[in-house]
Amino acid sequence: MLEKTYEPGAVEDRIAKAWVEADAFKAGAGAKPGAEPFTIVIPPPNVTGSLHIGHALNNTIQDILVRYNRMLGKDVLWQPGTDHAGIATQMIVERQLMERQLPSRREMGREKFLERVWEWKAESGGTIINQLKRLGASADWSRERFTMDEGLSDAVRKVFIELWKKGLIYRAKRLVNWHPVLETAISDLEVENIEVAGKMWHLSYPIENSTDNIVVATTRPETMLGDVAVAVHPDDPRYQALIGKYAVLPLIGRRIPIIADEYADPELGSGAVKITPAHDFNDFEVGQRHNLRPINVFTPSAHINASVPREYRGLDRFEARKKVLEDLEALGAVLWVEDKKIMVPHDEKTKQVVIEPFLTDQWFVNAEVLARPATEAVRAGRTKFVPQSWENTYFAWMENIKPWCISRQLWWGHQIPAWFGPRLSTDPEFGKLDAGPKIFVAETEAEAKKDAAAYYGRQVEVHTSGLGSTRFQKALADFEQIQRDRLNPTVWASRKAADPFAEMADSKVPLHRDEDVLDTWFSSALWPFSTLGWPANTPEVKRYYPTDVLVTGFDIIFFWVARMMMMGLEFMGKEPFHTVYVHALVRDEHGQKMSKTRGNVIDPLKLVDEYGADATRFTLAAMAAQGRDMRLAMSRVEGYRNFVTKLWNAARFLEMNGCVREASFDPHKLALPVNRWIVGATAKAVAEVAGKIEEYKFNEAANAAYDFVWGTYCDWYLELAKPVLTGDDAAEAAETRATAAFVLDQILKLLHPFMPFVTEELWGETGKTGPARENLLVLSAWPELAGLGDAGATAEMEWLIAAINGIRSVRTEMNVPAAAKIPLLIVGAGEETGIRVESQLQALMRLARLDKVDYGSDVPAGSAQIVLGEATFVLPLAGIIDIDAERVRLKREVAKEEVEMGKIEKKLANAQFVAKAPPEVIEEQRQRLADATTRRDKLLAALARLS
RNA sequence: GGGCGGUUAGCUCAGCGGUAGAGCAUCUCGUUUACACCGAGAGGGUCGGCGGUUCGAGACCGUCACCGCCCACCA
Questions:
Q1: pLDDT score for A467
Q2: What is the pLDDT of residue A668?
Q3: What are the φ/ψ torsions at residue A178 (nearest 5 degrees)?
Q4: Whole-number CA gyration radius for chain A
Q5: How far, in Å, is the CA of A133 from the C1' of nucleotide B50?
C-alpha cells in the first residue's frame, strides 16, 4: 500500500542504497550486449567544496543524460571525482591552523603541512561527493578519482616531461599576476578588474643638465621607485629634442633615459609615460624593446625591498605610496592630482586583495602552439558547443591566447618534476645574465640525479626542501664561482693557494628540486584521460576515450574546457568530447550571481530537504533553457514538488482500483478508443522527451513530460477511465486497468532521468503486484513505443474533450451549481457525432455532469447552446440560466469568430499571399475560415433561437 | 573600447516565420471512487521604441533606449 503522501526524506535514502547494492551506477551497468559507450566526466568539484546550486544544475543535467543513455542500453560511464584546488584548499587548512592557534604553515614546514592537508582531505573531502549522491547523481562512485591520486599524478608528470621535451614548456623570468598575501603567481583568469575611484598623479621629472622637466602621470606613484625610463612617441614634435637625453628620477636620483617608443600615446596626458618594467605589463615590453633592466622594488609580500633608499624599505606598498607622494610634494614634483575611475586588478575570489604585476621566474606552457589544433577541432565541428554561440567566445580567447603560467608558489599541489643545479663552465649559457640554473626535468629524483651526473660527470647531492633555498642558493653560487675561477688560470692558482680544498670544493654538485607546484588546472586539463588510467594503456582508456559530452558552466570555458581540448589533442590525438553543453548560470531572484560574499546563496541541499531531490532536480531541468541565465524562484520548486505528489497520487489511484500490469498486455491490440488514444499519446510524449534530451533542450523535455503526465494522463485519461472501471462491462474495465498500469510504467521510465527517486520507489511498489520486475527502474529499458497511435481514436477523444470543455465552460458562466446534473439535447447531429456520443456516453455524462442525453430538432426556449462540429449541444436550462447573460455570451462568441474570420479573409483577399504563400498554408487558412464561418453561423442560429 | 545576452501576463520564465504559452499569484465555484501539494472555470499581454525584409514578424535585419555579463594595457 502506498502511503497517503510521498515523503521524499525517508524514500530517498532507501532508494539510494538500493541503487548502490545493485551496482546500478557501475560502468556498463544495464548495457546491452555490444552496446556503444557513452561517457561523461564530471567537472571535478573542489575537494574543499560543498554543493552549491550551480553544482546541482550541472550534475542534474549530467545525470539526466547518463540515466537516459543507460536506459537506452548504452555502456555508460559517468566518471566522478574531485579536484585538489591548490589555493582554496591550502587556504582552508592554513586558516584552520590559525583558528586553532597551531604553528603556521611555514613554522611546521612543508612535509608536516602537507600531511595535515591530506588529513583534512580524508576527513572532509567526501562532503561534496555525499551531497552529489543525495541529489541522485548516478556516477560510478567506485571509480572516484582525485587529481592528486597516484595515477593522476603520474599523468601530470608524464605530460609535464613530454611538453618540456617538446619545448612546449619553458622557464622564464616574466611579469606575472602576483598575489601579495598568498605570495604566489595566479592566473590571468583569476584576476578581476574592478573599477574604483582612484587618483592620477601628474609628476614632473627634471631633465638632466637642464632646467626643463618632463611630465608623466601614474595611478600608482610608488612604482616610480622602479622607473628606468621615460617614453615618448617617436613622432611627437614636443619631445624630439629630449629623445636620447636623461631625466633624473626624483627621490632616487637615478639617470633614466628618455626613449622613443610607439607605446607612448601623444593624445594621452602629457604624451610622456614613465616606464617601470618590473611593475607594469606594458612597460615590461617597452623595457625589453629597449634593453632596459627592470628594477623590482617589491618583496613578495609587496613591501618595498632593498633596491631603493633606506627610508622606503619595508613599507607596505600603500604606505609607500603615501610616503612617496609626501616626499614628491615636498620636492614640488607633484604637479596636480586628478580624480579618476580606474580599473584595479583584484583577486577574483575575495575581491579584496589588489594583485600586483611582479617579476619572477615561472614555468610557462606555450599555449599558442597547443591552441591551434584545439581551435581547429571546433572550427571543423569535431567538437561542438551547445549553444553554439559559445564557440565565438572560445575562438576569441584561443586566438589571443597568452603563455600559460603553470607554476604556483604553493605547497599543496603537484610539485614540479624539475631539479635545479649550477651550470658548467662548458655550458653555452654559462655566465650569461639571466641564464638561470641548469634544469633537469625527470620522473623521479633518481632519474634527475642520473641525468645530472651525466651532465656534470660526477656525483650530485640533492638538497631537500628542508635545507631551504638560501643555503642552496649559496651552494649554487659557490659552485658557479669555482667554475668561473677555474676558467682563469691566474685566479685559480691564487684560489688554490688560499684554499687547499679548492680542488675538491665542486666535487659534489648541489641539486635542488623546484619547490613550486603546478596550477590546479594543469591536472584538470588531463581529467578526461587521466581518470581512465592514462598513461597506462588501460581497457578504460581504449573504451571510454574520447568521452561524449562535457557539461559545464561558461565561467570555466577558458580555465578548463580550452585546456582539456589542448591536452586531449596533444596527448590522445583526439578531442576529448564531441559536445560541450554550456549551461546557464543560476542567479538569484534579482539576477545577481550567487556568492557567499553577497550572501544570496540558495542552498540546494535545503531545497532537497524541504521539497525532495526530485522536485529540486525537476525545477533545475525545467528552467535550463539554452543560452540564458536562470533566476531561481522558489514558487517553481514548490510547483514541481506538487508534480511529484501528483504522480504519487495517480499511482495510488491505480493501486486502489486494482490496475495491475499484465504480462500479456499488448498496446497494439486495444478495443476501447480511450485506451487506444492514451497509448498513442504516450508514444508521442516518449518520442518528444527523448528528442528534446538529445537536443540538450532539457527544459522542453521536462515540460513535455510534465504536460503529458498531468495534463493528459491525470486530468483526462484517469478521469475518463473512472466510468469504465466502475461500469458493468468487465472486459472493458479489465482492458482499462491494464492500460492504465502499462501507461504508468511508461511514465515512470519517462520521468526517471528527471525524478529518479520517486519513480524508482513507485516502480518498486507497483512491481509488488503483476509480473515480477526484472530490474530496478534505473536499469530498465527506455520505452519502445514507436508505431503506436490511432488517428480515429485520437480524433474521437479530442472531440469528447472539446465537448466536455464546452459544457463545463457554459455551466460555470451560467452559474449552474457544480453539483447539479443537467440534461443535454443534441441538435443537428450527423452520423459521426451519433457514433461518438454512443461510444463516449458514460464519460460525457460523468465529466460534464449530465443526467441524460437526448437527440432533438427543437431547441427549448431559454437554453444554452454550444456549437461542436456539425452539431449543437443544447443545455435546456430554462429558469436556471439568465437569458440576457446567455445572449451576451453567444454574442461574444460570435464576435470572437468574426475577428478570426476577418483576419483570415483579409489574408486570403491579399493576392500576394495567395500567390506566394505555400499551398498548404493557404489550404490551412481556407479550412480555418470555413470552420470559423460554420461556428459563427451556428452561433447566430443559436442566438436567434434564444428569443 | 570591443563582444555576447536580455527586455513577452502582477512575479519567474518558455516560445524565435504562419491561430500569443507555462508555473506561481489573482477572481469564481467545488455533498464528485487518487490528489486541497487537488479539481472545474475565468480574468490578465498593442511580445521595450522606431524603421525595414516578407504574402505574413515576439520571432529575421537595422537602429535606439534601458538592464546584465564577458574580454581589453589608456600611463
A1: 46
A2: 94
A3: -115, 135
A4: 39
A5: 53
Nearest to A360 by CA among A411, A302, A274: A302
For A632, the grid coordinates are: 531561481
Strand B contacted by A311 CB (< 7 A)? no
Do residues A16 and A136 touch, judged by C-beta distance below 8 A? Answer: yes
Query: CA–C1' distance A317–B26 (Å)?
Result: 60
Residue with cell 611546521: A108
The whole-number pLDDT of residue A466 equals: 47
pLDDT for A826 equals: 92
Phi, psi of A404 (to 5 degrees): -95, 110
**Cell numbers at residue A656, please?**
486502489
Beta bridge partners of A631: A587
Residues 369-398 of chain A sitting with CB below 7 angstroms of strand B? 389, 392-393, 396-397
The alpha carbon torsion through A131, A132, A136, A138 (nearest 10 deg) reads -150
Report which residue is nearest nucleotide B56 when distances run from CA to C1': A913
Q: Taking phi first (over 0 means left), then psi (-120 to 50 degrees means alpha), and beta for anything else, what does residue A269 get?
A: left
Rounded to an integer, what distance in angstroms lies between the CA atom of residue A61 and that of residue A618? Answer: 10
- The protein footprint on chain B, as nucleotides within 7 A of a CB, is 3-6, 11-15, 18-19, 22-25, 28-35, 37-42, 54-56, 67-75
> Which residue type does A616 have?
T
Residues 82-141 of chain A: which lie with beta carbon within 7 Å of strand B?
none
- pLDDT value for A194: 84
How long is chain A?
Answer: 947
What's the longest Cα–Cα distance across chain A? 136
Instruction: For strand B, list residues 592-651 of chain A whose Cβ lies within 7 Å of it.
Output: 592-593, 623, 625-633, 635-636, 638-639, 641-642, 644-646, 649-650
Please tell me the predicted confidence (pLDDT) of residue A88.
85
β-pair type (A579-583, A549-553): parallel
- A609, with CB counted inside 10 A (0-12, 13-18, 19+), is middle
d(Cα A562, Cα A564) in Å, to the nearest integer? 6
Which pTM value belongs to this model?
Answer: 0.91
In tens, the pLDDT along A293-316 reads: 899 999 999 999 888 888 988 999
> Does residue A266 lie within 7 Å of nucleic acid chain B, judged by its CB?
yes
Residues lower than pLDDT 70 in chain A: 433, 464-469, 505-507, 588-600, 627-628, 947
Handedness of CA A176, A181, A184, A190 (dihedral sign): negative
Tell the burial category of A507 from Cβ atoms under 10 Å away from its Cβ (0-12, 13-18, 19+).
exposed
* Cβ-based neighbour number of residue A526 at 10 Å: 24
What is the ipTM for the molecules in this complex?
0.92
pLDDT of residue A907: 82
Structure confidence at residue A464 (pLDDT):
67
DSSP A637-668: HHHHHHHHHHHHHHHHHHHHTT----TT--TT
